[in-house]
């Protein structure tokens, strides 16, 4: 394994081509509190398919780590809530590495084909393949197992529940697992017969933000009221097939829509921001001109937020090689990191949200 600290392998563009397209302007909350003090969180991401190069970007210092972990295709990765361990899933196992030296800690004999999630309270790791396994992050023992084929699960903000696109035979559903009540599970049926692609709960779990597949990367963004058992918002996302995350202040949902490998349907934004209170969507473009990249706008694929909600990172699909860093409070691009070679894939930060 090769570890390089402070490695910078590209060209940085700052403050490029970023616009808020909503007519009332970007800052629609003049009474919001002052910006929180920045902390040195780390975003981790990797190259696509067979390349075993991983990167870490330190938000406060701007330092970039590059490290090499031999292995086959990475299906997913996530970092523990305390930032000390990196969980990387392969077809036959999930590997755990320390983030201080990027050395292996343990190999878990469980595939993570359909994702690996970590709880914000640092208690559990969810590994999904044909089965769902909840693993203790303290001793790596399996504390719960379910044969349902759930995928892309996510823990609630307080770590008490797990949500995932469901596998119910009676309806299109959301799988919900209660970690505080003896690992009881149930299904939340969602109106209409559109498959659930991705689900993220609001911070208080009163709302579910859902991507629903219409085929060919056309999707609905649905906002579902859990107590009212009803849809309260729907918008067409074209292209879709992206990622999403809720800000810690409960005000915004950030999401991407990269489409398929051929960029179809045509892209509508680099990423978007849904205002939870007034049900408005901002489309945000971020352009970058790099030595190793074409001068086209970034098309976001995976995304991650820092725990304080200050910084958003998006990977620019799997056919480009850019990582866009966006200041959510200043509402401006911080940096666009551009690297030679194959495109980027997963990106994660502490607590996985």
Mean pLDDT: 82
- Helix run count: 0
Using the alpha-carbon principal axes, give the shape. globular
Cross-sheet strand order for the largest sheet: 1-6-5-4-31
Share in β-strands: 35-45%
* Computed Rg: 19 Å
Helix/strand/pairing class, anyone? mainly beta
Distance N to C terminus:
28 Å
Spans of at least 5 consecutive residues whose pLDDT stays below 50 are: 1-28
Task: Explain the overall architecture.
With 353 residues, the protein is mostly beta strands. The protein is built from no helices and 31 strands. The chain has strands at residues 2-4, 11-13, 19-20, 42-47, 53-58, 64-68, 76-79, 85-89, 94-98, 104-108, 116-118, 124-128, 132-136, 142-146, 154-155, 161-165, 173-178, 184-189, 196-201, 207-215, 218-225, 230-237, 244-246, 252-255, 271-275, 280-285, 303-305, 311-315, 322-327, 332-338, 344-348. Strand 9 (94-98) and strand 10 (104-108) form a beta hairpin. It is globular, with a radius of gyration of 19 Å. It starts with a strand and ends in a 5-residue tail after the last strand.
Q: What is the element layout, followed by pairings?
A:
Blueprint: E1 2-4, E2 11-13, E3 19-20, E4 42-47, E5 53-58, E6 64-68, E7 76-79, E8 85-89, E9 94-98, E10 104-108, E11 116-118, E12 124-128, E13 132-136, E14 142-146, E15 154-155, E16 161-165, E17 173-178, E18 184-189, E19 196-201, E20 207-215, E21 218-225, E22 230-237, E23 244-246, E24 252-255, E25 271-275, E26 280-285, E27 303-305, E28 311-315, E29 322-327, E30 332-338, E31 344-348
Antiparallel strand pairs: 1-6, 2-30, 3-26, 4-5, 4-31, 5-6, 7-8, 8-9, 9-10, 11-12, 12-13, 13-14, 15-16, 16-17, 17-18, 19-20, 20-21, 21-22, 23-24, 24-25, 25-26, 27-28, 28-29, 29-30
């Amino acid at each position: 394994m090769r570890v390089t600290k402070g490695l910078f392998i590209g060209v940085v563009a700052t403050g490029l081509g970023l616009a808020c397209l909503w007519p009332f302007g970007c800052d629609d909350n003049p009474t919001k509190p002052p910006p929180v003090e920045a902390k040195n969180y780390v975003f981790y991401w990797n190259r696509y398919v067979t390349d075993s190069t991983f990167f870490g970007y330190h938000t406060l210092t701007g330092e970039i780590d590059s490290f090499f972990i031999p292995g086959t295709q990475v299906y997913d990765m996530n970092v523990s809530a305390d930032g000390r361990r990196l969980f990387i899933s392969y077809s036959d196992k999930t590997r755990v590495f320390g983030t201080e030296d990027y050395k292996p800690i343990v190999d878990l004999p469980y595939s993570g084909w359909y994702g690996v999630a970590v709880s914000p309270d640092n208690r559990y790791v969810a590994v999904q393949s044909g089965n769902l396994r909840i693993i203790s992050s303290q001793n790596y023992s399996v504390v719960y197992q379910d044969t349902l084929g759930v995928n892309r699960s996510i823990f609630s903000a307080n770590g008490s529940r797990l949500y995932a696109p469901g596998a119910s035979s009676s309806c299109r559903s959301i799988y919900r697992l209660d970690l505080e009540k003896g690992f009881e599970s149930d299904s939340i049926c969602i109106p209409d017969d559109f498959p659930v692609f991705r689900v993220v709960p609001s911070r208080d779990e009163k709302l579910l933000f859902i991507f629903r597949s219409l085929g060919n990367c056309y999707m609905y963004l649905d906002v579902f009221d859990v107590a009212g058992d009803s849809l309260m918002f729907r918008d067409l996302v074209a292209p879709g097939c992206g990622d999403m995350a809720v800000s810690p202040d409960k005000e915004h949902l950030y999401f991407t829509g990269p489409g398929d490998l051929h960029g179809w349907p045509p892209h509508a934004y680099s990423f978007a921001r849904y205002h939870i209170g007034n049900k408005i969507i901002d489309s945000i473009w971020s352009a970058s001109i790099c030595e190793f990249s074409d001068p086209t706008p970034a098309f976001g694929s995976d995304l991650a937020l820092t725990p304080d909600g200050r910084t958003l990172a998006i990977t620019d699909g799997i056919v480009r090689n850019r990582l866009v860093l966006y200041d959510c409070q200043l509402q401006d691009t911080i940096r666009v990191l551009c690297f030679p070679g194959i495109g980027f894939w997963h990106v994660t930060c502490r607590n996985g949200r």
